[in-house]
């Protein structure tokens, strides 16, 4: 499974960005697809996930500001990020979980929020 993330960039505090993750297989066969992020010096952390059945989950730090969605026909998962803060600055990675023991990662996309 290959994942292609895009949509990162430089934005001012309070701005918005939408990330896209194109998955090389039918995302409906995957347990979940999600977004993680890693800031310099920090561990990679979960941002948001969407389960096969459509249930979404978010890190507390992004609840109410970020929204994950998917287009099954286009095998694409989106992350709409609003009210961005400087602490959201990180490399964002798309992740696809095929099973409890098998997961795939895409290359990251840089998000930079200026103060």
Give a brief description.
The protein contains no helices and eleven strands.
Write a structural description:
The chain is mainly β and about 120 residues long. Helices cover about 0% and strands about 55% of the residues. The protein contains no helices and eleven strands. Strands 2, 4, 5, 6, 9, 10 and 11 form a seven-stranded mixed β-sheet that branches. Strands 1-3-8-7 form a four-stranded antiparallel β-sheet, with no helix packed on it. It is globular and about 40 Å long.
Which helices and strands appear, and what pairs or packs with what?
Blueprint: E1 3-6, E2 9-12, E3 17-23, E4 32-38, E5 45-51, E6 56-58, E7 66-71, E8 76-81, E9 90-97, E10 103-105, E11 109-114
Parallel strand pairs: 2-11
Antiparallel strand pairs: 1-3, 3-8, 4-5, 4-9, 5-6, 7-8, 9-10, 9-11
């Amino acid at each position: 499974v290959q994942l292609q993330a895009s949509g990162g960039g430089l934005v001012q505090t309070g701005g918005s960005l939408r990330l896209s993750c194109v998955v090389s297989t039918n995302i409906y066969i995957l347990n979940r697809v999600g977004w993680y992020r890693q800031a310099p010096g920090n561990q990679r952390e979960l941002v948001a996930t969407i389960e096969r059945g459509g249930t979404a989950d978010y890190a507390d730090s992004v609840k109410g500001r970020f929204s994950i969605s998917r287009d099954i026909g286009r095998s694409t998962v989106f992350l709409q990020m609003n009210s961005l803060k400087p602490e959201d600055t990180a490399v964002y990675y798309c992740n696809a979980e095929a099973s409890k023991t098998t997961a795939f990662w895409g290359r990251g996309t840089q998000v930079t929020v200026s103060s």
